[in-house]
Amino acid sequence: MFAIVQAAGWPIWPLLLASIISVALIIERLVALRRSKVVPQGLLQRAVGEFKRGANNDKLLEELDRHSPLGRVLSAGLRNVGSSREIMKESIEESGNAVSHELNRYLTTLGTIASISPLMGLFGTVIGMIEIFGSQTPGSGNPQQLAHGISVALYNTGFGIFIAIPSLIFWRHFRALVDGFVVEMEQQAIRLVEYMHGDRK
Length: 201
Hints:
Elements: H1 2-8, H2 12-32, H3 35-38, H4 43-53, H5 57-67, H6 69-79, H7 85-103, H8 107-135, E1 136-137, E2 140-141, H9 143-196
Helix pairs in contact: 2-8, 2-9, 4-6, 5-6, 6-7, 6-9, 7-9, 8-9
């Protein structure tokens, strides 16, 4: 690996940094965007049941806030259950926007890495080509310098594409995952309003 880095020259270092950041973000989002952690099954029914029993609603709302993103949305609605349907929906929408922003955290960075990695590789290719043409003086040539320029060009191009492909795949996967979670939370929030205002039992 060190030999490859040496052969690729200094333009490979920004690409190595981008690859480390990309792997870290992918692992973090894989852990954070688990379904059981974002939209736990049965949370709506349990929250409504405990709230209607009214044993200790303040404690219940605090637990929901800490429980999960869906819990935060449900908690916002339950805090305004005594208000009109419109007020309850507005509070849920405000909380949902904040939760959606949090779920999308780091995805812009991952998408940026996916976009710029090929360009960084292309930059390394240009550097390699400059070294190749710089080594070709009239009447003489330096084969070692020529080989180094070619290796810089090819390694950087390949490494840039190698970083971009998984970054783009995971970026698209996480975006679709977050969109699905947001839709599911919206549906459960609507059910919450209907449960608490007597439209559903």
